[in-house]
Write a structure and sequence with these properties.
Layout lengths: L2 H19 L5 H8 L3 H7 L3 H13 L2 H8 L7 H28 L13 H21 L10 H13 L12 H10 L10
Helix pairs in contact: 1-2, 1-4, 1-6, 2-3, 4-6, 5-7, 6-9, 7-8
Length: 194
Amino acid sequence: MSPEDRREMIVAAALPLLVEQGAAVSTLQIAKAAGIGEATIFRAFADKDELLDACVATALRNDHVLAELDAVPLDQPLAARLSEAAATLHAYLARIGAVVGAVHAAGRRGERGVPGDRSATSDRENATERTQQAVIRLLEPDRAALRLPVEQLAVVFIGMLLGRRGAPGGIETPIETLVDVFLHGVVDKPAGAR
């Protein structure tokens, strides 16, 4: 197994444990889950912090999400396409939140690295842009029927998903409601049509 494959295997074993137990998960627990000796972790990673950084970087990668969004059939009605997209993006955002939350709960506030290294920021910006492009693709077949440009609507749609859990009391808006409000607005009847 190549060093990079070994690192990926260790991160794959660590991610669910990190989500379940938080950053307090031990390297021994991770090693057992990966089916390796604990010393192997420290041959692949300098320390546990480097392993946690790799877990965050993996959680932020969105290749699998983009593949799922690309698989949404464009011949479905717009509401169905957006519901599928919302469910996919919600699962991705929940995973990111769980991993980053666990790492932050351990007192870590970001990836270590060379001061001024903007690669993590660049990776996030690239992931965001690629996600917006995937949502634009889903909106494109209905471009003529939409009031705003699909590029702007993609940003609004993703923004609605990001705020889905932000309500006081932890109330989570169902995906169907979010898509309905996105497509039809919040007004039941036009003003003056009483």
